[in-house]
Amino acid sequence: MTPEKKQPSLDKTAKDFAVRLAKTMAANDPAADAAFQKAEAERDAKVSAALKAHLAKKKPAKK
Predict the structure, then answer these.
(1) What distance in Å separates the CA atoms of residue 34 and residue 42, rounded to the nearest whole number?
(2) Taking the CB of residue 44, how many other CB atoms lie within 10 A of it?
(3) How far is CA 63 from CA 23, 35, 40, 46, 54, in A?
(4) CA of 62: how far to CAs of 33, 47, 52, 55, 56, in Å?
(5) Given this model, what pLDDT does residue 28 score?
(6) Distance, CA of 51 to chain centre
(7) Are the beta carbons of 2 and 15 closer than 8 angstroms?
């Protein structure tokens, strides 16, 4: 038996489309490319900080 494939949420699909569109536009315009790279770096920094904060939380001791 194969597990059912989950459909991506509409929000994720829209975000993926927006990223692909931004990459396509950035490839044709150096200023847009710089803005896209900056936005990607900011997003990566936020995700990294959130992940570090999550991992830094103490896990409750198992009984």
Answers:
(1) 12
(2) 10
(3) 50, 50, 42, 34, 22
(4) 49, 28, 22, 17, 17
(5) 76
(6) 12
(7) no
Token output for 34: 């710089």
Look-up of token digits 């150096």: 30
How far is Cα 54 from Cα 52, in angstroms, rounded to an integer?
5
- In the block, which residue shows the tokens 């990607």? 40
Overall pTM > 0.70: no
Band of residue 62 on the pLDDT scale cut at 50, 70, 90:
low
pLDDT for residue 41: 92
Tell me which residue of 22, 57, 58 sits closest to 43, measured CA to CA: 22
What pLDDT, in 10s, does the model give residues 1-46? Answer: 455 666 666 677 888 888 888 778 767 778 877 888 898 899 999 9
